[in-house]
Amino acid sequence: MVQTRHDFFDEAFLARLERLHLIAKRTRRPTSGVRQSRRMGDGLEFADHRAYAPGDDIRFIDWPYFARMEKLLLRMFHHHSDAEVTILLDASASMAPAGRLQKFDYARRAAAALAYVAMGSLERVTLTPFADGLGRAMGTARSRDRVLEVLDFLASLRPSGNTQLARCALEFIRRAPSGGTVLILTDLLDCADQLSNALARLRLGGHEVTVLHLFSREDAAPTLAGPMLLKQAEKQTQFSANITDALLASYRRRWRAFQRGCESACLARESIYVSACTDMPFEDLVLNALRRAGVLGG
Asked: Can you tell me the distance from the alpha carbon of 275 to that of 118, in angstroms, rounded to the nearest whole number?
């Protein structure tokens, strides 16, 4: 069945987005990092005042304030760079194993919320799916006016193919040679060995990278038991296994080691790692990820 926006982006979801935007707006504080700086000028968003000093440009004096208080203050603005916030969304087959879309739907909701809050923070956003290569991208303006187009775009995506993260990173920096903020939403399955290489390429391209490692409860702690025929989601290979308690315990140990390895790869490449089970409310994930990525102050 072909999905549409209304299948999982309903009015209740839109209301959650608006609440999320308001929370982000209340918690956002001016930052001096790579995303924005406070300076005099015709910026997009008023930030603060400071005392006038000889030599300052008199065009930015707050004359109404001077008329009331007879004190010279300069108006300061957030200056937003031309760099974009790019959301790279894993659309490989492992995001919907055996046709189950729960993890991919969570990723799409999180991507929609990330885009909505960033757009509301006057950032330009580009959403790009990836698997074997980069898919068709969608860009937005510095406002939330195109949110329905974003939702339609995300609803049109279909997970398939293998994850070629390193190849996609190389293709991305060819598309976007100037640095920006990159948020990668992925389960990191079948591509963890490519993570360090991909991050190195993105960092060399001048991008600030945050990896949002999304996983289902079944990914981390499967509840299988007994003889099973298992299928590898991306390569479509099959194998038989007898699922015992000892095997499950070994799997859980290897999963924890897998997560630690992914986090270490991010730290080594000066990138941010955020781990989230799909049980987590996506609002919590989005606010945490955007704050840590520097898109929101705080």
From this structure: 20
165 neighbors 98 (Cβ within 8 angstroms): no
CB 90 within 8 A of CB 131: yes
Q: Which residues share a beta bridge with 39?
A: 77
pTM: 0.79
Of the candidates 229, 181, 9, the one whose C-alpha atom is nearest the C-alpha of residue 106 is 9
Q: Which residue has the tokens 């007898």?
A: 242
Give the number of C-alpha atoms closer than 13 A to the C-alpha of residue 115, restricted to the C-beta side. Answer: 30
Under DSSP, is residue 1 helix (H, G, I), strand (E, B) or coil?
Answer: coil
- CB–CB of 238/232 below 8 Å? yes
Q: Is 49 helix (H, G, I), strand (E, B) or coil?
A: strand
- Contact criterion met (CB below 8 Å) for 134 and 92: no
**What string of pLDDT tens digits covers the 298 residues of the chain?**
457 777 778 888 888 888 888 887 776 544 433 344 444 444 445 566 778 777 677 777 888 888 888 888 877 665 455 568 999 999 999 999 878 889 999 999 999 999 988 888 778 899 999 999 999 999 987 777 788 899 999 999 999 999 999 999 999 999 887 788 999 999 999 888 899 999 999 999 999 999 999 999 999 999 899 998 888 777 778 889 899 999 999 999 999 999 999 999 999 999 999 999 999 988 888 888 877 776 665 4
User: Facing residues of 183 across strands?
Assistant: 87, 210
Phi and psi dihedrals of 120, rounded to 5? -70, -20
Taking the alpha carbons of 10, 144, 171, 286 in that order, is the dihedral positive or negative?
Answer: negative
Q: Is 19 left (phi over 0), alpha (psi -120 to 50) or beta?
A: alpha
Pair type for strands 238-243 and 226-231: antiparallel
- Under CATH, to which class is 5-27+81-293 assigned? alpha beta
- Per the structure block, which two tokens stand in for 244? 């015992």
N-to-C CA span, the chain: 42
